[in-house]
Amino acid sequence: MRSIRKKYILLVIIWSVVTALAFTSVPTEVSASENDKVTFKGRAFGEPTKIDTPIMKAGISGGVVGKENGQPIYYTTVNAELALFQVVDIKTNTLLYSLPMQGVQQVWAHAIAPDGTVYIGGIRTSGQTRGILWSYSPTTHKLTEIGEPIAGEKSIWSLTTDDQGNVYGGTFQAGKVFKYDPVTKSFTDYGSMVAGQEYVRSIAYHDGYIYAGTGTVGDVIKLGVTESTKGYKQSIGAKVPELLKVDSAAQVPFAYDMAVVGDYLFVKFQGGDHYTLLFYDLKNQVWLDHVVGKDTANGGTGVGVFSFAQLASRDNKVYIPANGHLTELDLTTFKATPLIKYGTSLRGAGWVEFDDLEGFKGQSLVSMKANGDIAIFNIADKKVHNNLSVLQGAPNPIHNIEVGPDGNLYMTAYPAGLGAIYNPRTGKRINMVAEQAEGMIAYGKDMYLGLYPGGHIYKIDTTLSTPVPTPVFTIGEDQDRPYIMKTMEDRIMIGTIPGYGQLGGALTIYDPATGQYEVHRNVVNNQSIVGLAYKDGYIYGSTTIHGGLGITATEKSAKMFVWDVANKRKVTEFTLDIPGLSNPAMISGLSVGPDGNIWGGVNGTLFQMDPNNYDIINYKKIYSDISNTYGMWRPYHTHWGKDGLLYMDLADRITVIDPKNMDFVRLFEGSMEVKFMTIAEDANGNENIYFADATDMGSLQMIAVSDVGYEHAGKLKLTGPAAAKLNETITVNLELDQASKLYGFKAKLHIDPTQWVIKSVTGSDQWIAGGTLKWAVNGSDVTIVGTQMKDNSFDGSHIAAQIQLMAKKNNVNANLKLLGQSETIRIDGDVTGVTHRLGSDTSLLVHIGALMEGDFNGDGVVNRDDLLLLAKYLGVKVDDSNRHMDLNGDNEIDITDLGIVGLEALK
Q: Residues 803, 872: one domain?
């Protein structure tokens, strides 16, 4: 404590030359009290608490059908904060095993080796994202983490095996292929398949070769992986643009799914307007002219071919998910015939003979839906049976949190499909069907959601008992991720990231009243928009240099821009002029502060910008460990509290900032990475912090915020004589009233220099005995700062300073004002950050000249004007500022005093 107080002593010394000193400019220290609450600026912040697991479901991305002990088995993984690999007996619809995959959140790929071993491509997203290969033994029923196939690759998107039991996988971020040899337990890195392409999204093995499907620009690479074929690497995609009817190879979308059926390689290309299946003849090494794409024939929905992890065939026919149906494809004619309505992908497929399922004699085709339900297809009778999911649900990672117009918290998840609404006043929660929302904003009675993929805008009518997101419009212009959504008067503004393999985000302005919207792409060339604020007809925006996945940024530095809404044009764009900032990758977190300025964050720096001339008014590098490469798409979330503080996940760390001086405190220092954050009111109207953190993305966490019950340091007041003669020197006292461990004060006074000459300001003997005092004059403003030293403080009522004034103007009522901005601070103020302001001005009235009884306005006569002035004070408590109006000395200003003045006025 003593070392901290040295700051105050130093400030008084500095103040002798810097007269604008205020206690609030002192760097704030933060401490924890006995109950571990952090206190800052009069607010107490509790420990992070997990208050709900809002989105529990069994959501899967893929799976495979295999066998254990001769019985058909479904292998899949429930994506969650802690992913669960699960084993289901298909015939009995029984969950046999649910095994946690420590550190894994997502799994897209499974593959079964000839010996029955199941390989799983895990993706670790907490902390450093990376792909991890796992295996499951059908004999021991144990799950094993094998390891990271290629250091630096962030995910495993595809898996296959060869007839020797070797495992092959395709990765993101360098679009590589690897092999795992289970005999030598070693990995082989075959490198990137196509330079500049980040994904190997699909993969298959046939006769000594791997076929790797790339993205974001689709191609198929044939890679030799045996002794007799090694060294061979060649693209076989030359005819694909012609088959897809696109102009060039650069327009070929993802080679998204792949499977070998007999002597054919099936490749589904997906992206843009394509959900198209092509066929490669593996014997003759040519693409067939047959194409299965969007089709409405025979009841088809025209959506094209959906994804598949396995394909099942028999009798020279194979079954695919196409145009809203399970579709039969004849391998002789390649004619596609819709059989049974089925509007989703095949997450694994196989043939199973059911013993007791009526109407499903013989072999039935089975697959699993995204929620874990098993679909059973009777091909001959063209019907489907649904077995409800037996998968063990798990917390799904929260992918957004924002407050709706009803005060509730709206949340979505990744993987998508289910969302939640949490009432912070009651603690109750309901779930809703919802896709992955990158951005959300409340407008009117509706909650608007910006959904990925596809850049769709949906809304929820929050007045309905059953919340249902309904479509509003699709942004278009190849926009994919609406990461930032803000309101602007009667409209909504949206900033977006483009689709895979593209640069150039967009600014979209939507009018809910008319349903009209306008899209302005490439407002800043080849950059995406992740920050928006609106003021007086102008949008202030900020960017990230990054576009969609699968393309390298071309611009060096994120920028600010200004958009004229009425004239639909960009006014200017510029880089931030902040010392030490060089080519940041992202600027975000923009908002209009209570001061009317634009606030935002870049790297670990908070900045304040003048919206008129775009000058940086102030900035503070809060987190110096953050580099210029920090940030990609997800913006900082900025919220202004009712307490005047700024709440922000700056650099993905919960940060509370005092905007007056940029003092700050970081909360939850054990956080791995705060993904989403907001503030919302509880039943008492108090705003608490709600967030999702990478340490446990499945949990909604809260930091309770409350007022700190500090004792008041005490008040300042002026006392002195009611009258003075011309050229007389009087003493006015600056007093401390009911002080409680008072350590320092700053008094601001208004003393008219045409009425008084300030001779001196001195500390009282009692104050100077343990402290020091400085003062300065600027025109009519007088500032006095005093501080105690060491462990000294004041209690009770005392004179702190004495002001010597000489009267220089005759026959005037001089009003000495102690301004409301005057403040005091307790001995613990350096820890709490709390100062106590006077709040309102107080006055000491001194008459200069021969005081005529009843001449309250000092004009030398007692008349009607004095009566009217006195009348305003009838019943007012007598103090030093009005004591001269108590003419009969009974300590009351009443009708008797009014009568005395009236009689004098009649003379």
A: no
Q: For residue 115, how many other CB atoms are within 10 A of its CB? A: 11
Identify the three-state secondary structure at position 516. coil
Question: CATH number for the domain including 9?
Answer: 2.60.40.680
Nearest-10 Cα torsion for 23, 24, 28, 33: 80
Quick one: pLDDT at residue 550?
78
Structural domain that includes position 870: 857-907
Separate counts of helices (H) and strands (E) for the chain = 6, 73
Measured in residues, the chain has a length of 907
Enclosing H/E stretch for 751: none
Nearest alpha carbon to residue 555 among 587, 509, 592, 590: 587
pLDDT in tens, 791-809: 899 888 889 999 999 999 9
Please indicate, yes or no, whether residues 820 and 901 belong to a single structural domain of this protein: no
pLDDT, tens digit, for every residue of 237-264?
999 999 999 999 999 999 999 999 999 9
Cα torsion angle, 243, 248, 251, 257, sign? positive
Q: In what order do the strands lie in the sheet with 491-498?
A: 479-488, 491-498, 506-510, 517-521
Same domain for 781 and 873, yes or no, is no
Query: How far is CA 73 from its chain centroid?
Result: 41
Same domain, 761 and 861: no
Q: What HEC string does 472-501 produce?
A: EEECCCCEEEEEEEEEECCEEEEEEEECCC
DSSP 545: S
- In this prediction, the residues of the chain whose per-residue pLDDT falls under 70 are 1-36, 126-127, 850-852, 857-860, 880-881, 905-907
What are the residues whose beta carbons fall under 8 Å from the beta carbon of 364, sequence distance 6 or more?
Answer: 351, 352, 353, 354, 357, 376, 377, 378, 379
* CA–CA separation, 240 and 247 (whole Å): 11
Per the CB < 8 A criterion, the answer to whether 484 and 529 are in contact is yes
- This prediction has a pTM of 0.68
DSSP one-letter code for 900 = H
What's the burial of 433, exposed, middle or buried (CB within 10 Å: 0-12/13-18/19+)? exposed
Q: Which residue has the tokens 């080849």?
A: 526
Q: Is omega for the bond preceding 76 within 30 degrees of 0, making it cis?
A: no
What is the Cα–Cα distance from 752 to 420, expressed in whole angstroms? 63
